[in-house]
Amino acid sequence: MVFIMFSCQEKKNRSGLGEKILIELPSKVSNLKDISDSGNKYISSIEYIQLQSAENAVLGKIDKLIITDNRVYILDIFKYGGVFVYDREGQVINTINLTGQGPDEYSNVFGIYYEEQDSTINLLCRHPNKLMKLDMDGRKVIKQFSLQVALLDLKKLKDGTYVGYTGTSSNNSTHSIFIFSEKFELIRTEFFNKSDWTEYTTENKLSTYDGKVYFTPEYGYTEYEVMTDTVRPYYTCDFGIYSIPMDVFDNKEKYNKLERNRYISCIKTFQETNNYLIFSYLFQGSNLISFFSKSNKTKETFLALNNPISKLGFGNFISMDENHIVTYFEAETAFRILNNQEIRERIPEGVEILDRAMKQPVNETDEPILCIYNIN
């Protein structure tokens, strides 16, 4: 009976769209300005981090990334099956791979979470489903919690409870969002899972700002604030003729018949900062990023091709937090930029910024270069 009451309350609280943001787009994305034309209005500075190679492991893919004041954590889910721990200079501190069947081991790790309160890196594991709490450098397992579901992401609310995201087709859960107590006891669930037609994603669907947690669904345009006892629509993006009608999202057959390149199917990632709401999404095969000013309600949308600081490539998007947008590019790209005379002559200041940030000569087969953009 209690669960039924929760379910009715969930539906009631999620009705409505929150505040609507109309984002007007041209018929061709090539008519949009590039973010490199925004100067330092949104991005104040850039930090390049040249990741060094580990002695005992090769970084395959950057699936998840967490950046703190003195650490960078990168999760490589499928190739390495673990976490690379770097300092902010890109030096390898440790690699975490605890694959096995023992009590302090896992079969797979699909998410990571940094706990500021105790400075620990937490692994979200499956087979069995559990959270493994390790010290900051990942050298010691401090504590473990059994979980009822396999999580891809985890965030903490101001009241000490946790919001977990399960993903979609990669698990058998009927819901996408789980609320846990401080001891990871299940409190309730939210958002029915469309696992029959939504593909697995490594996008960051949970974000935090000032102790609040927001959820970006795998479909649609509404951002939700998730609280311990309820959920409320926060903002909804309206892309006009490029929005898919909500009734189509509820009909798999109609959805599959769409020419999806003509529409924006979802918000990929969302982040609130002190001054802006930031939305990233894909349209006509291009990565777009929109900034909405919290103070004067103005908005601007850009192509994410080149960055406004060095004027070099913006990079492949990884994640956002309250202070940063993080992207990366392959070492081969950096090598080509640094060794191309035409680029040096065309963008001398940008090449110099990149060159100064490299701690050692760049080889084409090196690990990727991180681009950390500091948000105003």
How would you explain this protein's 3D organization?
- By secondary structure, this protein is mostly beta strands.
- It is 12% helix and 38% strand.
- The chain has 6 helices and 25 strands.
- It has helices at residues 2-14, 246-249, 252-257, 331-338, 341-346, 348-357, and strands at residues 19-22, 43-50, 64-67, 72-76, 82-86, 92-96, 108-115, 120-126, 130-135, 141-146, 153-156, 162-165, 175-180, 186-192, 206-209, 212-215, 222-226, 231-238, 269-272, 276-283, 286-293, 299-303, 316-320, 324-329, 369-375.
- A 5-stranded mixed sheet has the order 1-18-17-16-15, covered by helices on one side.
- Strand 4 and strand 5 (82-86) form a beta hairpin.
- The radius of gyration is 21 Å and the shape is globular.
- The termini are far apart.
- 35% of the residues are buried.
- The model is unreliable at 1-14 (pLDDT under 50).
Q: Tell me the radius of gyration.
A: 21 Å
Q: How many DSSP helices?
A: 6
Helical fraction:
10-25%
Q: Segments where pLDDT lies below 50 for 5+ residues?
A: 1-14
Question: In what order do the strands lie side by side in the largest sheet?
Answer: 1-18-17-16-15
Q: Main sheet?
A: 5 strands, mixed
The fraction of residues assigned to DSSP E strands is 35-45%
Which structural class fits the helix and strand makeup?
mainly beta
Number of strands: 25
Rounded mean pLDDT score: 90
- Terminal CA distance reads 48 Å
The dominant shape is: globular
